[in-house]
Amino acid sequence: MITVGIVGCGGHANTHAATIRDSSFAVLAACADIDPVRAEQFARTYGIANSYGSLKDMATGHKLDLLIIVAFPTVHPVLIREAIEYGIRHILCEKPLALNSEQARQIMELAESSGTLVVEGLMYRSHPQIARAKALLASGAIGDIRYIHAQFSDYASDNPGNWRNNRSQGGGSMTAKGCYLVDACNLFSGSRAKAAFCIESTNPDINVEVGETGTILYENGVTAQFETNHRSVWREEIKVCGTKGTLLIPHLIVTKTQKREIVLEMDGAYESRPMRSETFSFDVMSSYGLQLDNLYCCITEGAAPHFPVKDSVANYIVTDALMRSVASGKLEPVHWGD
């Protein structure tokens, strides 16, 4: 049994608490929030024995095997650093891990020097459809990859209490949704990004961007385009196009209770070559539960995380180029620092 603590008791913390409650190998021993009353209420809801008003107090009072950080993005780097200083050696930090590549590099270097496992909460990586999709692409199922298109959108509210609508808390559609798409494009491209272009839509009433349209060019010739939007119908899909066919994942990211599938579509360009399709289905399983399973194996068996922190750093390097492009209106090079 592993002992888990949560810092940040807002809305999304409920997902993690419920996931721990439903597991057979983890106990949620403590929670902390800058609002002690909210921490107390959260503790009562989930039957947590102890609640605190700070990470320091929680870390002092408990030996935690795993800390889950579910706070505002702007304080994620600070909380990670504090947790490591308090001796916590396994940390799951909700996305975004950082606000730029420099912060992400610093987190990775601190994690490596202290022997700490830090994982960013892109839980979709733990679903078996991702490993299967990678294997299909590696086998040449759709030929050579040429183009990727990804979309993640939903009709979010203008609630000022939601960090996604507050720039000072690290909000915006890039940090809330674009982080998944940049990662998926990097993951499936099979190469390193060399340049990026991005435009964004901003809601002037809340002074935060509500949508991005981005293009990433890769060293192997693959082009990826993605769209995020907080004012659109819910979509979370990716399409990888190759010289022989297309791999489509209709539900890429958020899965708790729905089935997942991968669809291969082959040919179809001409009447003489009708489209052929093949579907790979997956049973209902929670990506959050699978993420926790992987972390348990990391803690108890020394397993590798499904989403290593070096991949987070790579994503933020690409995101930096995308954000520079928003400011310049031009295609920007991706600076890898080597």
TrEMBL record:
The keyword Oxidoreductase applies. Residues 2-119 form the Gfo/Idh/MocA-like oxidoreductase N-terminal domain. Keywords: Oxidoreductase. Signal peptide: none annotated. Gene3D superfamilies: Dihydrodipicolinate Reductase, domain 2, NAD(P)-binding Rossmann-like Domain. InterPro entries: Gfo/Idh/MocA-like_OxRdtase_N, Gfo/Idh/MocA_domain, GFO_IDH_MocA-like_dom, NAD(P)-bd_dom_sf. It comes from the Bacteria. Residues 131-247 form the GFO/IDH/MocA-like oxidoreductase domain. Coiled coil: none annotated. GO terms for molecular function: nucleotide binding; oxidoreductase activity. Belongs to the Gfo/Idh/MocA family. This is Deoxyfructose oxidoreductase. The lineage of its organism: Bacteria, Bacillati, Bacillota, Bacilli, Bacillales.
